[in-house]
Structure formats: C-alpha cells, structure tokens
Amino acid sequence: MKTSVVFIVVFLMLVGCATTTIPVQESHPGTYDPALPAQFLTSSANTGILIVVRDSGFLGSACKDVVSVDAQEVGYVHPAQELTVYLPPGQHEVYAEMGEHSICATSRTSAIFTVVAGRTIIMDIHLQQNGGLTITPQNIGNSSTAY
After folding, report:
1. Which residue from 11, 66, 132, 135 lies 20 to 30 Å from 109 (Cα-Cα)?
2. What is the Cα gyration radius of the chain?
3. pLDDT above 90 covers what percent of the chain?
4. For residue 60, what pLDDT band results from cuts at 50, 70 and 90?
5. Does residue 102 contact residue 62 with C-beta atoms inside 8 Å?
6. What is the 3 state secondary structure string of the chain?
7. 42, 86 in Cβ contact below 8 A?
C-alpha cells in the first residue's frame, strides 16, 4: 500500500513538472529588450517572421529565458510567452539562455534556421526535466511554417 502511494505521488510530481508545447495563439507577449533595434520589430515585404514560444508548465516557471538572434538580445520569456521578430532572408541563429540574472541553473541552447521572405518560422523553447533547454521548430496548426 505504501509503495503504491509513493509511486502515485512521484508520478504526479513528474507530470505536474512537465512543460507542454503550446500554439502561438495561446501564448502571451514576452518582454522585449529596450535596446532592440527597430528593424527587428518592423515588417516589410523583404522579411520573414521568427516567433519564439516558450512551453507552458510549472517546471522552471520562476525562471526567464533570454532570447537572442544572431548575437542580438531580443528579450526574455517566461512560460507560455512569445517574442516575434522580423528578419531578412538567409541563415540565422536563435539562442535561448536560462539562469543568467535568475535563481535557476544556467542552461543555453541554440538553433540555426533559414528565413524566407513572407514566411513564418516558429521555434519552441522546451525546458527538460534535467534543467536543460532545447529549441526546436514547432508546427502546430501553422501551414505557412518554413524551416
């Protein structure tokens, strides 16, 4: 009996700590770096759209992830938040870093992607159970996504 109770408690703790990928439509705006150049926030016919979404969930909820593109800090996100930037066509690299300026352990990840003018790329930041971060392409209900 005690073994069953312990198993159930451990299972519920692990499930409660999992993060879940969410569609962009269910996310909320993150906080942009005030020093971010206006070109990152201005759409044109010659730009593509990068949306970086952090998963929802309790795990790491006290921590913010700093998001950078091509070594330019864009801003930060908490769970279920997103940042949107406009980029010129070509290859770019997005970084997510957790731990700097917070109580959380430091973790950093990056992904390289190619922007096509007029297309949207959605990248998902996922916090793993071991505290590590991953950033991967997301395709939830978005038929115009290109990678």
Report:
1. 11
2. 17
3. 51
4. low
5. yes
6. CHHHHHHHHHHHHHHHHCCECCCHHHCEECEECCCCCHHHHCCCCCCEEEEEEECECCCCCCCCEEEEECCEEEEEECCCEEEEEEECCEEEEEEEEECCCCCCCCEEEEEEEEECCCCEEEEEEEECCCCCEEEEECCCCCCCECC
7. yes
Residue 63, judged by CB atoms within 10 A of its CB (0-12, 13-18, 19+), counts as buried
User: Tokens 């330019």 belong to which residue?
Assistant: 72
Q: Using CA atoms, how far apart are residues 21 and 23, in angstroms rounded to an integer? A: 7
Residue 92: CB partners within 8 Å, gap ≥ 6?
50, 69, 70, 112, 113, 114, 115
pLDDT-derived band at 15 (thresholds 50, 70, 90) equals very low
Q: Classify strands 65-69 and 72-77 as parallel, antiparallel or unpaired.
A: antiparallel
By C-alpha distance, which of 131, 86, 132, 136 is closest to 111? 136
**Residue located via tokens 């010659």:** 46
